[in-house]
Specification:
mainly alpha; globular; 0% strand
Length: 242
């Protein structure tokens, strides 16, 4: 999202240093989100057509194209989110899911009886239901100004779901995955062409370091766009080991 006097590049750069912590509040009395879901949309492993439309619209709104980066879907943030939801994280492979489900504090991390994939699915359905009730259309079909209003309502918790699920908890996970899709290793589907890394001056992992150690011996080494202090240190360490 953007505000009149807030630069999007600064927003994305600051997100690398710390994500939004989701407060844990009242939980819905459900174990899964709406039971069996429809088949995934073409090109997706988890997201249904309706969910894919929501996520694509969401990431393009939160990461619009500008002079620094392309829009969110061109960066692959939607693909990152889909793979994360279909994989071990979405399935809660490393989550303790036996309860009890007492209210916690943000510092305690994820505190819901829902798998992350179910939370995402349930949150999308609830948000779409709110949009239809408020604007007559689902999230992907409302105006940009209306989407901004919805996302700010989710972020602040002022938008409430009839199910009892905390909209702020849902948005906290959404925000986390959008930022991960922007800055994670491209191998996971997002950060296409390393655009997120290039924007903040991080060259990433260089696969030809072994060759560069010999090629740039006694010479200054630069990545494709930025000099990396980390790589310079790694280069010096490698030289000492030779």
């Amino acid at each position: 999202m953007s505000e009149d006097n807030f630069d999007r590049r600064d927003f994305l750069k600051s997100a690398v240093l710390g994500g939004a912590a989701a407060a844990t509040v009242a939980l819905p009395s459900v174990a899964t989100a709406q039971g069996a879901a429809a088949a995934p949309a073409p090109g997706y492993a988890f997201l249904t057509p309706e969910e894919a439309a929501f996520v694509e619209t969401l990431v393009d709104h939160m990461v619009p194209a500008d002079q620094h980066t392309p829009k969110g879907t061109d960066v692959g943030i939607n693909i990152y989110i889909d793979r994360a939801l279909a994989g071990g994280w979405g399935k809660g492979d490393k989550l303790y899911m036996q309860g009890p489900w007492a209210a916690g504090v943000p510092e305690q991390g994820y505190q819901l009886p829902l798998l992350p994939s179910d939370l995402y699915r349930f949150g999308i359905a609830n948000t779409n239901a709110h949009c239809v009730k408020a604007y007559g259309k689902p999230f992907d079909q409302i105006t940009s100004a209306q989407r901004e209003e919805v996302l700010k309502g989710l972020d602040s918790g002022k938008l409430t779901f009839e199910s009892g699920l905390s909209s702020r908890v849902f948005f906290g996970v959404v925000y986390q995955t959008v930022m991960e899709g922007m800055f994670a290793d491209p191998i996971y589907g997002g950060n296409k062409d390393k655009v997120g890394w290039k924007m903040i001056g991080f060259p990433g992992v260089v696969q030809v370091n072994a060759q560069n150690i010999s090629k740039y011996k006694n010479k200054q080494y630069r990545s494709e766009e930025h000099t990396s202090e980390f790589q310079s240190l790694a280069y010096l360490v490698c030289r000492l080991l030779l």
